[in-house]
Structures are given as C-alpha cells and as structure tokens.
Amino acid sequence: MASSVIIYFLLLSLSLFSLSCLSAPQTPNTKPHPFILPINKDPSTNLFYTSLGIGTPRKNFNLAIDLAGENLWYNCDTNYNSSSYIPIACGSKQCPDVACIGCNGPFKPGCTNNTCPGTAFNSLAKFIFSGGLGEDILFISQNQVSGLLSSCIDVDGFPSFTGDESPLNGLPKNTNGIIGLSRSNFSLPIQLALKNKLPPKFSLCLPSSNKQGFTNLLVGSVSGDPFKELSKFVQTTPLIVNPVSTGSVSVKGVPSDEYFIDVKAIKIDGNDLNLKPSLLSIDKKGNGGTKISTLIPFTELQSSVYKPFIRDFLKKASDRKLKRVASVAPFEACFDSTSIGNSVPRIDLELQGGVQWTIHERNLMVNVKKNVA
C-alpha cells in the first residue's frame, strides 16, 4: 500500500459536476435535451446500477455505475445478437489502439475480425479484459441514440484459468457490464455531450437504499439548468485533476481520468485529526489525495490516516457512552446499536474554498447484524 492516502466516498443524494475539457459547438437551430437514467442500489453489494437498451432487436441491460470507468461495456454472450452492431475497424479514426483483435466465429457482436480492441476494466475483478469496440443503437429512457462507442464482451467465451475469472466478478448479480462516467473520451457522458451538443456535465443522485425514489443520472442540461438551481441549495467544491494517470492502463504524461476532491482536514466532533498535510495531498507520483468512487461501497482510509482516525473516533464514541462490541468484518469499530441513538461522533471534512462536508449518523454507521452497527 502506498504511503499516501486515498479515500473513497459513497455519495448519497449529492450532485457531482464533471466539467470536461472537451466541448462541442452548438448551432442555433438545434434543440438538445438532457438524458436521464434511473439509478438503483443493489442491497447485497451496496453498489449502484442503471438500465438502458442496446441493439436491434432491443435488449435491456442493467449496468453497474463506475465513476472511474473509461467506457461502456456489456456482456454480449452466446445468445446475444444485434443487426445494428457495427464493429470499429483497426486503423480507423475511431480506433485509438495500434493493436487488432479477431475471432474464429461464428461472427456476431463480440466476435468479429480486424476489430479495434476495447478495454473493459472491472476493478472488482482485478483483471483487464478486452472485447471488440463497436457502435450500436442505445435506448436511454425514451431516447434512441446512435453512433456511440462501447465494448462488447462475450463473457461465456472468455477463457478462465482458475474457473472463477469473469469480467462480471463482484458486480451485482443482475448486472451485465459497467457504464463508465470518467473523464475519458469514451465515457458515456462525454460521448453523449459531444454527439448531442450538450453541456459536458452530469449529476448523480444516489439512493441510500434499494427502494427507488427520486434518484437518477442526469447527463447534460439546457433550459432551467438544474445544476445552477441546485447550487443555490447545496455547497459545492471543485473537482481537482491528478496529474498522473491512475486508470487500468497508466500512460506516462497523461493525467488521471478519475475524480478527486481537495480535502484539507478531517475533524471528529469539531477536533482536527492530527495528520501530516501531505497525507491528504496528491504527490508527484500521483499517490494520495481523495478519490470519489461508486465501486467501493464504504469509505476506505490508508493506514497512516486510518489508525489515528479510529483511535480518536473510539475515544469520542466512549465519551458519548456508545457501547463497543466485537468487530464484524470488514469493520473494526462496532457498537451496540441500542446504545447509539443520535450520539454518533460527527465527522467533518474541510474542503477547498472553506467548504465543510458534514457526514451525519445515517451515513456513518451501517447495520451489520441484529443490534450491531
């Protein structure tokens, strides 16, 4: 583990603004509209997913949401086919890779020759998988979109040396791929923005439970800008760029496509955690900083931050008369939930610009079994 800290946050009902350096000119006669996708939470993995349709005939896919995902990839297994699928040829303008992939047949989406490779990375599977890059029709809510690039992977035909290697490992059981939302040119928000002359930004409103309410992924906005309206009621902090590539394939001299925020300090019940400021900063090698993730269901702290954090948190919890009980993996600090009430120590993150993000009881504790949180 690196000596610097990387903190992963689960964002609940919090809008995230992604301002890409890519933009598309908008002509006066066009009438672009935003795209809205519903978001659900899987209770067994605590991960989020959305649904869209792909291909002809249309097939609906549930796709896990990955803020660090570089593209959209889906499982085009043995039984899948689409007459509107167009593989991207090697050497074409749309193919950024010098390599090329092929297949012995039968030819179908996910099995084509002279095809540009499309990386499909699932950080939970710990492997990088390669499928064919292609175009097909996407159905987002009631909108039909063509010309977007995605990766099609035949999971059934993927070789496994141990019998349990799969691109879908760790994802919710009802999902068949990942929808990537990173700064990559192949991510869905950037492709939709460029294709439809939309502002290059999106928001996420994530549900706190698997009971769907007003939760969605909104890509682009035009009139009655909800991003602008929302900023009147919530505090915001700018995203920062890690100058070092942190993706599945690191490229020297290329900044990270992932999203980071600038955390200046951590407080427990109003008292600063005693940390070296450098632990919360991104160093020259790209280590450290605070990264936002949707594939890590709970906050993770590097050991140099975790040890003083858990020490001070337990002290504050004891002062508040919380009754500590035996640990339940993967959590170290567990309490008798009947002793908690509204007495959980408050966590504040001091962010860039003097903004303070307060994490309250509901988002600090998770019930792991009866009467234990």
Automatic annotation (TrEMBL):
Name all Peptidase A1 domain ranges. 48-373
Pfam families named among the record's database cross-references: TAXi_C, TAXi_N
GO process terms (BP) = proteolysis
Q: Which InterPro entries match?
A: Aspartic_peptidase_A1, PEPTIDASE_A1, Peptidase_aspartic_dom_sf, TAXi_C, TAXi_N
Q: Enumerate the GO terms in the molecular function aspect.
A: aspartic-type endopeptidase activity
Task: Provide this UniProt record's keywords sorted from A to Z.
Answer: Signal
Which range is the signal sequence, renumbered to this chain?
1-23
Record keywords: Transferase included? no
Task: Specify the protein name.
Answer: Basic 7s globulin
